[in-house]
Amino acid sequence: MLIVGFIKTDRPEVLINPVVCKNEVEVYTWLASFFNDENFRLDSPLTQLKVNQALEEKVLIQIAIAGHDVAIVFGEQNVIKRNIERSFHTELFDYKDFMAK
Question: 72 near 5, Cβ under 8 Å?
Fold first, then answer.
């Protein structure tokens, strides 16, 4: 199982609004939907291959969001558990508002 979520860069041990993904394709789809031309752009284009290669490293992957004090993190569930002390869901930040339609 794979997890995608947000962290505050000054509190990287707390995972915000985690989403469970069944496989690498779901992780890529989630990330590609969030990092779209309308809302947030990456310096280097995101590809399925890059997501797969990152996940093969078996480490917590972090993508900073320029201009914000948050980052997206993703990885295998056991990797997330090793790096995150707690997680929570909040309605104050609804990432779905930023997803591609």
Answer: yes
